[in-house]
């Protein structure tokens, strides 16, 4: 038993919620641990309550939850630092257990990879930014170097993906940076991410809670479609990989519908679902389940159609430890079922 690990000074008494999460973590660990020896160890520790593995996972999540409850954002780098700290304080076999925790619901069951069936497949939210923020987003995005996506079968438009999301907010609300990369001018303040994260949360609530407990949002992608550009290929955004999965997609419409012709955003649930075509107002966002909702952008006939796209991801702890493929910002589920 590693006493040092459970006595991090900043952590107080566990609340009921945290207790429940601790149990959930144990269940998930038991379910997902492949090594029989590890499974037996978890069984033993679970019986003891407050056992080593419980506490390790619990502390990590508590730290996150505390940050999130304060509406503070954690960067991927900070999460990685926490995990490294835990790993250094633990024997090797413990960190192995830590690495295999999938996102779980309150009752310990794995988070489904799609929104709940009874929930609507997408949500359209308005007023994501203030008007001045929106103008600032557009102005900054236009400064980014865009590369062209050109595949006649699939898509033709220009995109820029911002590279750095090492963003956090200190207790007094001042922006600060984790990691040593120079701040990206687009991403170095909370004004951009707070509204986007809030929109993801609102969207998640509207979809009945598709977000996993431990979620991150990716860097933002800026898309610009000039006349003739399109993303005609119906696709889902999620690409299965070992390190993370996208759970929610957010497409923020930066252009007013009268600023471009064509460019309808079409969505459908699943392969055979009915297609809905949208031309949303500027400053509104479509939020939808990244695995389940097929979507495409019809060809733009005039003007420019601009969007900002980002994703909520669930990330395995190991992915963060090994360095996430995409730097990410953590955010949480607060105030509703189960942890939002
Ligand atoms: O730009 C859009 O409206 C959607 C883009 C999209 O579907 C994507 O980047 O995956
Ligand atoms: Fe997409």
Automatic annotation (TrEMBL):
InterPro entries: Oxoglu/Fe-dep_dioxygenase_dom (IPR005123), Pro_4_hyd_alph (IPR006620), Pro_4_hyd_alph_FE2OG_OXY (IPR044862). Residues 216-314 form the Fe2OG dioxygenase domain. It comes from the Eukaryota. GO terms for molecular function: dioxygenase activity; iron ion binding; L-ascorbic acid binding; oxidoreductase activity, acting on paired donors, with incorporation or reduction of molecular oxygen. Keywords: Dioxygenase, Iron, Metal-binding, Oxidoreductase. Its cofactor is L-ascorbate. Gene3D superfamilies: q2cbj1_9rhob like domain. This is Fe2OG dioxygenase domain-containing protein. It comes from Emiliania huxleyi (strain CCMP1516).
